[in-house]
Amino acid sequence: MRAMLVALFLSLPILCYASQANSNANPSVDKVLVVKSERALHLMHRGEVVKSYRVSLGKKIGPKEYEGDQRTPEGLYWINWRKQSDNFNLAMHISYPNAKDLQRSKETGLPPGGMIMLHGTPNDEEYPEWFFNTLDWTEGCIALTNSDMQEVWKTVKDGTLIEIRP
């Protein structure tokens, strides 16, 4: 009995370290950062990058100005709901337009648009998945490979901040 207690006492620091290492291995994501110029999506925890992915964006360069302009928005938004998509596998909605986007829409008289999503790539018999990951092809959404989207889907909760930078 005494030998068992000594062994337990000696292994306690190792058990504590292993537990701490595992909790640090998968920190919760508190922000999604998309840097359009890098074609990158970064999962963040307390200002540090946890993991990064390559993304495809809207067909045209620059910030979204109005509905149908094929541009990806820029600014601060929220991941506010999700769904399984017939066209793009998994999809997470971005809360575009924000107040700044609505003000611009009011000033220009052009509708801001909506339904900006973070989503996977289509299952297309004519084009393999890698084809979509090599170019900007969306109507203004942010697309990842389907395996990357599955990781993001599991890791990012609804209500998470998403910042989209130029």
Low-confidence stretches: 4-24
Please indicate the percent range of residues in DSSP E strands (runs of 2 or more).
25-35%
Biggest beta sheet attributes: 8 strands, mixed
Separate helix tally? 4
Please name the fourth-level CATH homologous superfamily. Answer: L,D-transpeptidase catalytic domain-like
What is the CATH topology classification name? L,D-transpeptidase catalytic domain-like
The average pLDDT is 87
User: How many runs of DSSP E, i.e. beta strands?
Assistant: 8
C-alpha-based Rg, rounded:
21 Å
Helix proportion of residues, in percent?
25-40%
How does this structure look, described?
The protein is an alpha+beta fold. It has helices spanning 2-25, 99-108, 129-132, 146-155; strands spanning 31-35, 40-45, 48-54, 75-85, 89-94, 116-119, 142-143, 161-165. Strands 3-2-1-8-4-5-6-7 form an eight-stranded mixed β-sheet, with helices on one face. A hairpin with a 2-residue loop joins β2 (40-45) and β3 (48-54). The longest helix has 24 residues, at 2-25. It is globular, with a radius of gyration of 21 Å. The termini are far apart.
Short description:
The longest helix is centred in the first third of the chain and has 24 residues, at about 1-25. It is built from four helices and eight strands; from the N terminus they run H-E-E-E-E-E-H-E-H-E-H-E. Residues about 5-25 have low confidence and may be disordered.
List the helices and strands and how they pair.
Blueprint: H1 2-25, E1 31-35, E2 40-45, E3 48-54, E4 75-85, E5 89-94, H2 99-108, E6 116-119, H3 129-132, E7 142-143, H4 146-155, E8 161-165
Parallel strand pairs: 1-8, 6-7
Antiparallel strand pairs: 1-2, 2-3, 4-5, 4-8, 5-6
